[in-house]
Amino acid sequence: MAVPIVSRAEDFYAPAPPLRPDAWDLIPPAERVIAYLENMEKRGLPRPDGVDPDALLIARVDAGRWVAQCPVCLSAQVVSPADPRFWCVGCQPGVWTTLRFPDDVAAVEGLVAGEPLKARRFWWASDDTAYNRPRPRPPITLKQQAEQDLQNSMRRG
Which residue in 27, 29, 70, 152 could disulfide with 83, CB within 3.0 to 4.6 Å? Predict the structure, then answer.
């Protein structure tokens, strides 16, 4: 199996031996995190019932994985554009939250593919303001940089 440019839930959450690698092929990608946790912890979990019509999370690429982060407990899990739903296995709310992915997922994955180290592949939507994500500074001219350097040197004495 080829390693994906950006991992998705269906790639990331896989059954552990002695289960066959294809044992979860019929489980929808958003529900694989539940199966994974149940398998690892050897206990059942409640299941979400319905979708919260007022809730929306924005998926992002974080260290080469599509992830979404719970707005309540801040835990994150790997998600998939093939099944844009999120249910926090930490908080275990009663309903699913809808995920928003970019219109052109392949273009985003192509954009981050240029980074050779998977751990450095990051992307988030420009309108995703959650958690005070840093925004790039506007570029400055060489003249502005020289003026800033002069002011800083004068302050230091």
Answer: 29
9 CB-contact burial (10 Å; exposed 0-12 / middle 13-18 / buried 19+): buried
Integer Cα distance of 88 and 33 in angstroms: 9
Cα 147 from Cα 134, distance rounded (Å): 25
Q: Global pTM?
A: 0.78
Q: How is residue 17 written in tokens?
A: 């031996």
Distance CA 17, CA 99 (A): 31
Cα–Cα dist 99/154, whole Å: 50
pLDDT, tens digit (0-9, with 9 covering 90-100), for 37-51? 999 999 999 999 999
CA distance 129 to 57: 11
